[in-house]
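[User]
Um, tokens okay?
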Amino acid sequence: MGSAAQFGLLCFLVFFALSQFFQWAQEITLPLPFFVLGGALLAIASNFDRRAGFPFNLINPPAPEAPPVEPPTLTQSPAPKFPQEVSFTIRKPEKTE
């Protein structure tokens, strides 16, 4: 028996087992609390990397990493360029009768 035939037989057996499992799983009925618990576990698992807000993680909160601060120097940033000033006089409108 060649390796291609073994691979084909293995795929057939895996797909057959999966189809039998899904037919069996369709007959199972679960009460609502199982679905609620499953949803909560999925929510926790999907947000596991953002666990800083969980109450049980407040014992040793992670320290925020601050970027290194370089001291300002005069040569580092050029002087800001402001637009030229515009000046004018505001006069009261003349009364017309």
